[in-house]
Amino acid sequence: MNKIFLLFFLLFFAACNDEKLELNQKAPNLKAFNTQNQKVNLRFNGIELVEFWQNGCAACLKVMASLDEFAKKNNILIYSINSVDKLELIKEYEKTHNYSSMIFLQDSLDITWQRYEIFALPTLFIIKDGIVKEKILGDRGFNYIQERIKAYL
């Protein structure tokens, strides 16, 4: 039994550490599931945003509507990853707001959060053709975020 536990432990941490974030390098794969419990992958094509948020974070939530509208107009996909809240709360937020450019994900094992080295919320990554271009940390406001994204369109 101890050998099985040790093997599981080693495999789990190997999965957590196989990719790390570096600017101007390939984006780490997502290890998160959508609200239908399906694995979601980056497209590695065009502009994509990876947003880390939680429901109790006012700064996380205040730009989501504007960001979704901007993304819809510019063919940008947003991966909204939450590792803090329960799946039911994430589903309810998704249903209530019905953002068309956002895929709501739960990272229940914190693997994606570790790969992207998240230590504060909100954190947003701009990815172009699979390459991490920018990391935007904290409450920066929609105008700032929009200008940063426009630099890569």
Task: Please tell me about this protein's structure.
- InterPro entries: Thioredoxin-like_sf, Thioredoxin_CS, Thioredoxin_domain, Thioredoxin_ResA/DsbE_sf.
- Keywords: Redox-active center.
- The chain is an alpha/beta fold and 153 residues long.
- The chain is built from six helices and six strands; from the N terminus they run H-E-E-H-H-E-H-E-H-E-E-H.
- It has a single domain (2-150), classed as Glutaredoxin (3-Layer(aba) Sandwich).
Summarize the structure.
The chain has one domain (2-150): 3-Layer(aba) Sandwich (Glutaredoxin), CATH 3.40.30. A six-stranded mixed beta sheet has the order 1-4-3-2-5-6, with helices on one face. The chain has helices at residues 2-16, 58-62, 64-73, 87-97, 111-115, 142-150, and strands spanning 33-34, 47-52, 77-82, 102-106, 123-128, 131-137.
Determine Rg (CA atoms, Å). 16 Å
Secondary-structure element series? HEEHHEHEHEEH
> Main sheet: which strands, in order across?
1-4-3-2-5-6
Strand content: 15-25%
Low-confidence stretches: 5-17
